[in-house]
Amino acid sequence: ASAPAVGGASIGLIFKAASGEYCRTFTTTQPRALAGLACRGAQGWHVPALMETRPSSNGEMRTASSAFPSALLDQVEARMPGEPLDADGERAARDAGWR
Questions:
Q1: Does pTM top 0.70 for this prediction?
Q2: String of b and e for 39-64 (b: at least 16 CB within 10 Å)?
Q3: What average pLDDT does this structure show over 81-86?
């Protein structure tokens, strides 16, 4: 989440789901505006939720919270038992191979 947007994609919240998977929210602007949820399972990353969004009126990326449809936020809240990871928690999860 601390990394800058790459290729029109930005990472939002990163958290450990109740299922034990690490999940992250994301938004993209290219090739079209999307918001989604990706989770890391035994077989790698998968995207259980993805929806089209509207870019801001000036065509730039909006903040993660404003670009996220409420239906996706509901899915995040249903999976996230506590607080999202901070930068140190994200780094530790990444360094441990998201396990």
A1: yes
A2: bbeeeeeeeebeeebeeeeeeebbeb
A3: 94
